[in-house]
Amino acid sequence: MSIWEYANPKKFIATTTPVIPWLFAAAGVAIVGALIWGFFFTPDDYRQGSTVKIIYLHVPSAMMAINTWVMMLVASLIWLVRRHHVSALAARAAAPVGIVMTLLALFTGAIWGQPMWGTWWAWDPRLTSFLILFLFYLGYVALWQAIDDPDTAADLTAVLCIVGSVFAVLSRYAVLFWNQGLHQGASLSLDAEENVADVFYYPLLLSLAGFVLLFLALVLLRTQTEIRVRRTRALLARSRRAAPEARA
């Protein structure tokens, strides 16, 4: 069995339909469990107090905001190389999810930053690159809406996705590129010494797992919707072309 079999819309819908409810259920359990664990069963930080507990929303949403764009990039490259419509529609379906994740990251970051920095916003490298990434998300969605021909829209949005990937990388590694700035270092890292304390680390991992599952469920569901919308539009266009011929 080849992975490219799922580029067939019917195969994609048939395969993902039974999976989506389980993804939503698992995501709900993981996120709710992580928030209860983190908010009520972890101590306050010795410097940040109870404010640190917003980490269970801020870090997963920020990571998913970046990774959503990475997923869109991969799907867009598949479209450009192999011309599979499902991949282009998956990229389109993921964009609104990325917008919500980016907004949530910016909002929770402002709430977290205000008591720590004394301001809701600062032109910190990571914050600024994240704001630019959010604008790229909006531009991506707007470009899809502005172009009638779906293949042309997929081509142009794929190019935009490639360009925007620069800011996705900057959003992730801005703290490493620039030593100045208010934003702290990574809360999750392959280097165990850079991670948060274990008491925060494990509920944070559970929350991140929940966000990943929620992302998968939403993208699969929205991709199915995009496939059905595209199919409906194609049928309507075909019927409009056939109507004059029938009258003749």
Brief account:
This protein has 248 residues and is mostly helical. It contains seven helices and no strands. The protein is globular.
Amount of beta strand: under 5%
Count of DSSP E strands? 0
The helix-and-strand class reads: mainly alpha
Please, what is the average pLDDT?
84
Show unreliable segments. Answer: 189-193
* Cα radius of gyration in angstroms: 21 Å
Report on the structure:
This protein is mainly α and 248 residues long. The protein has one domain (17-178, 202-237). The chain is 77% helix and 0% strand. The chain is built from 7 helices and no strands. Helix 4 packs antiparallel against helix 5 and helix 5 (125-146) packs antiparallel against helix 6 (150-177). The chain is globular and about 75 Å long. The N and C termini lie far apart (48 Å). Mean pLDDT is 84; it is low at 189-193.
Blueprint of the fold:
Layout: H1 9-16, H2 20-40, H3 55-82, H4 85-117, H5 125-146, H6 150-177, H7 198-247
Helix pairs in contact: 1-7, 2-7, 3-4, 3-6, 3-7, 4-5, 4-7, 5-6
Organism: Roseisalinus antarcticus
Main location: membrane
Domain Cytochrome c assembly protein: 5-183
Defining key terms:
single chain; 248 residues; mainly alpha; 7 helices; 77% helix; 0% strand; heme transmembrane transporter activity
